[in-house]
Write a structure and sequence with these properties.
It is built from three helices and eleven strands; from the N terminus they run βαβββββαβββαββ. The protein has about 170 residues and is of the alpha+beta class.
Length: about 170
């Protein structure tokens, strides 16, 4: 529900920490984990290709954590753009003063980015030991140690892609 700018991209844009407005609300992921944003910044975003370009002022939460993307466009900017997305076609269409603008993704780049995110997640994962206590049938307590392994990963390569033709391309 938010637009996110990752700190590595923030630095590459030549922005300074002093440009950030403070924020006290943590950002929660779908797994329940949370991260405290470094702050918030309002930036002008240009979307599209000339002449079909839309410009919107957007508030980004800046977070300092490793990620393979520079930004994540959330519902606020998609709503402001009146964007319609198609995950299947890796495309987003939106209204401009010159007609309908479009941004297209590339299946090879998307797969490469996905593979990099898996490698990053496996690299950052640390094994954890968790103690579970349960009641035994004879009223005695039994402790069981469960070790969570970070060794499991899914490996795919760009050769695994199923190329598709889009609009006769």
């Amino acid at each position: 529900a938010v637009d996110i700018l990752y700190y590595d991209a923030f630095k590459k844009m030549g922005l300074n920490k002093s440009d950030l407005k403070s924020t006290v609300t943590p950002l929660y992921g779908f797994t329940g984990n949370s991260i405290m944003p470094m702050g918030m910044i309002e930036l002008m975003v240009n979307v599209g290709t000339y002449p079909r370009v839309s410009m919107v002022m957007t508030q980004f939460l800046v977070v300092d954590c490793p990620f393979v993307f520079n930004i994540v466009l959330g519902r606020p900017i998609l709503r402001e753009l009146r964007a319609v997305t198609s995950i299947y076609h890796l495309a987003m269409k939106f209204l401009t003063q010159q007609g309908v603008g479009e941004v297209r993704g590339n299946q090879y780049d998307a797969r490469t980015c996905y593979n990099n995110s898996l490698k990053l997640a496996a690299k950052d994962a640390t094994p954890r030991t968790m103690m579970v206590q349960r009641e035994a049938s004879d009223e005695t307590s039994v402790e069981t140690s469960v070790k969570a392994s970070s060794k499991t990963s899914i490996e795919t390569t760009s050769e695994d892609l199923n190329p598709r033709e889009i609009d006769g391309e």
